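JOB MANIFEST
job_type = single_chain_structure
chain_count = 1
residues = 342
[input]
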Amino acid sequence: MPAISLSVEPLDLPLKHTFTIARSSESVAHSVLLRLHWNGIDALGESAPIERYRESVQSVTAGLSGLRLGDDPYALERLLHGLPPAQMCALDIALHDCISKDVDRPLWRLLGVDPAQTPRTSFTIGISDLDETLAKVREVGTHPVLKVKLGKGAEIETVAAIRSIYAGTIRIDANEGWTPEQTVELLCELARFEIEFCEQPIPAGSPEKLRWIRERSPIPIVTDEDSKDARDLPALLGCVDGINVKLVKCGGIRGALAMIHTARAMGFKIMLGCMVESQILATAAAHLSPLVDWADLDGPFLTARDPFTGITYDDGKIVLPDGPGLGVRPRQPQDDLAGAVR
């Protein structure tokens, strides 16, 4: 068989709006595009490395560019072993795309999931001044689920204003921006606005503080930064209600499956999340979405013009592509005319 070949390049994704969370702000998202070629098959992978975990576009590009993979894309354990998570994520996705194309089936069929069971995704509202925040909410229209970024003050006023014009489900995410005491005080006040859950209110690394919060909070607690991969989950037992799974943190589809099955065995609810990323990475995650309770796969909503097409949405419900592999392809002019299903 021919050898597997790779090409790696940065992928810059201008955003519709500047995206701000408690610890950072960006108007262009930066990810890594991986192209894999084997036996006449062209496959795609992507990683959106997180500086918080000491990974970057530069480190992922350099690491993947030097790989020699041999001639067997099915040898996943060998090919992925020892790679840092963000590098592993891009290669894992490309290998799954390649294998699924080799057998001419959508990835969701190889995973054995039911595409009718995809959840509705939330749409993320980044931190802005109140007028801009409300303008973003109005722009979202009737989308059924919002995730509101908090953590830089004015939390009560922000959520109250959003709830005054929005009747759908609201989730909140503080991105480690609060203390335990602040968290309990704020969540007790925010409970009247019917908040579905609060994501990662305090800095990661203190499960017992999350337990203390959970015992006093009327709103369920979900981790993000505290749940990087399956090895993190045992320490969270009894401390939180759910976890967030992101492919770039856990190393791709195989790592996400390990997290999902571990979380189910421990009784956690599961959210499948994303960074600000292209359709490649978002669609790869979406193939797993029938296995989870909640989705936050809104990267394609946030970019100004994604260079690829993949998942679409029907009133927020994720619609998986039925082409072979990921079902992702380069965007064509007619795609801009057709638009995504909403």
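[summary]
The chain has 13 helices and 15 strands.
Residues 28 and 86 are 19 Å apart (CA to CA).
exit_status = 0
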